[in-house]
Structure to design on (551 residues):
């Protein structure tokens, strides 16, 4: 089933130009989609259009077949959870468990169910030991995992991460990516990962490159990275591992085009043996 | 980063932590009343004893408690100084002259020392107990308690839950904003702003370049938080359920009796002992 579909969607913040222009795409249930793009490409606007924080000026956004309007956005938000960029500005309560409970309280679940959901959400992000911890003492990566748990407590079918790793250190980024891949594979949650880190996009089934509010490129992450010269025109650079491959090839070594570190290591190992 | 303790929850499991937040709020109000009913040091001694019990049974480290007092040190010294300098009573409480020193309208008298000690003791008791409330109660519990106590206002169609939410979010963001303040102050200092020198007026003026970006940062946080809250199905006016339930237990009964006993004790001491000492 189609989780979210965009049909000829346009949205503008002001009159100076469209941030999203005549956008068409479909996100299938269970899919792991990466949305790439440099600053101002409209990728964050896309996230906000998915759960009705912004409503399209023209065209329709459908969430599981239901068009998003003022009337339906509350239900859409139960299905589409969005986690944002800044780890410090998303938690409502001082204590982890109270914060995770917030969404579940908002939709009026009974107490026992909220308790179960907190347990589920915290274990899904590997933070069950921190149930009674103070949010402000956690690391950035841990805070973002709590933010994900807060959304998971609503049991959404789609999880949208709007540059949720942008303000984290490499370790924190790793933590989040592990959690997200696990949620996609084990809980079958549809994931929309909005990012400007190309390495992260590698984990996705499909990638979209946004440029000036339009979809500029589309395909598997591998397909897209193959076209690295085109990527540069959208101000996106290849992941470091891809660059290394290109440089080795330019130096006359026969390594394959790959973004998989083990694959490259193996190839280099073979060359060394010869 | 400075450790911001004021208004921050101290997470341990203790008797005081488990007391119903509504009762804790009422206890604080009762305590304030008792402090102002006390007319002499004996009454304050009763209040101090109760405070000691609260600290003891809260398992909050004494250093943390003292830090709350440190925050009002300036106010304490100011109050003490004013009261000593401007009190002109000629009463004698101990052997020695009633007036130690006098110059124009200023004087140091036995009466002045006694009264200022009394006021300082009041102030310290008050602040310490208030900080005990926030040390032992999570903002959410505090909010729920307040909301429940303010239920009568709901009948007058005042949106109590919104006010309660606002309060708990304000408490939640104290550490974030104070960290932000320090970051901005450091940034301005590195551009040559001098924030730590000069007289009070100069210092306040020098702080403006810190305040403006701080306000912007606060608005930014509010924007972000608003989006995050809406994304989690928050809608003002909708009924929410509460995960944490408040109920009255034997603990609360004990605390209630303690409060009653303290107020009764203070009132009795007020009636039967005339002097302040």
């Amino acid at each position: 089933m189609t989780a979210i579909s965009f049909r000829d969607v346009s949205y503008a913040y002001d009159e100076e130009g469209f941030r999203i222009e005549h956008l068409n795409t479909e996100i299938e249930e269970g899919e792991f989609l990466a949305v790439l793009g440099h600053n101002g490409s409209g990728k964050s606007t896309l996230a906000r259009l998915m759960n009705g924080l912004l409503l399209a000026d023209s065209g329709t956004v459908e969430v599981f077949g239901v068009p998003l309007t003022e009337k339906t956005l509350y239900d859409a938000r139960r299905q589409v959870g969005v986690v944002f960029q800044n780890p410090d500005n998303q938690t409502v309560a001082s204590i982890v468990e109270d914060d995770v409970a917030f969404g579940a309280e908002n939709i009026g679940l009974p107490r026992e169910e909220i308790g179960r959901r907190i347990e589920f959400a915290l274990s899904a992000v590997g933070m069950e030991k921190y149930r009674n911890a103070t949010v402000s003492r956690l690391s950035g990566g841990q805070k973002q995992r709590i933010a994900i748990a807060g959304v998971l407590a609503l049991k959404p079918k789609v999880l949208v991460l709007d540059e949720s790793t942008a303000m984290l250190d490499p370790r924190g980024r790793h933590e989040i990516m592990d959690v997200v891949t696990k949620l996609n594979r084990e809980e079958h949650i549809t994931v929309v990962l909005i990012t400007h880190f190309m390495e992260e996009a590698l984990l996705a089934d499909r990638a979209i490159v946004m440029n000036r509010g339009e979809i500029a490129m589309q395909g598997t992450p591998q397909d897209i990275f193959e076209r690295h010269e085109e990527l540069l025109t959208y101000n996106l650079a290849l992941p470091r591992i891809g660059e290394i491959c290109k440089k080795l090839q330019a130096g006359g070594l026969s390594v394959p085009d790959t973004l998989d570190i083990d694959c490259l290591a193996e190839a280099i190992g073979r060359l060394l043996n010869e | 980063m400075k450790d911001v303790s004021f208004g921050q929850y101290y997470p341990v499991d203790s008797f005081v932590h488990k007391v119903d937040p509504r009762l804790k709020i009422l206890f604080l109000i009762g305590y304030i009343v008792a402090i102002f009913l006390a007319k002499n040091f004996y009454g304050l001694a009763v209040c101090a004893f109760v405070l000691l019990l609260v600290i003891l049974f809260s398992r909050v480290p004494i250093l943390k408690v003292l830090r709350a007092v440190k925050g009002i040190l300036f106010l304490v010294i100011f109050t003490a100084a004013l009261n000593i300098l401007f009190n002109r009573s000629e009463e004698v409480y101990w052997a020695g002259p009633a007036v130690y020193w006098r110059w124009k309208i200023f004087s140091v008298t036995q009466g002045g020392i006694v009264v200022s000690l009394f006021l300082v003791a009041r102030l310290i008791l008050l602040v310490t107990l208030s900080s005990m409330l926030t040390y032992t109660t999570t903002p959410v519990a505090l909010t729920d308690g307040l909301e429940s106590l303010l239920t009568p206002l709901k009948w007058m169609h005042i949106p109590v839950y919104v006010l309660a939410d606002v309060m708990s979010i304000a408490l939640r963001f104290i550490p974030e904003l104070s960290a932000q303040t320090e970051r901005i102050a450091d940034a301005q200092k590195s551009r040559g702003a001098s924030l730590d020198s000069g007289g009070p007026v100069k210092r306040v003026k020098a702080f403006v370049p810190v305040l403006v970006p701080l306000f912007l940062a606060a608005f930014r946080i509010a924007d972000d938080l608003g989006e995050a809250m809406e994304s989690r199905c928050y809608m003002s006016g909708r009924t929410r359920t509460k995960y944490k339930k408040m109920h009255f237990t034997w603990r609360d009964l004990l605390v209630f009796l303690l409060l009653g006993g303290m107020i009764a004790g203070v009132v009795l001491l007020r009636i039967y002992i005339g002097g302040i000492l």
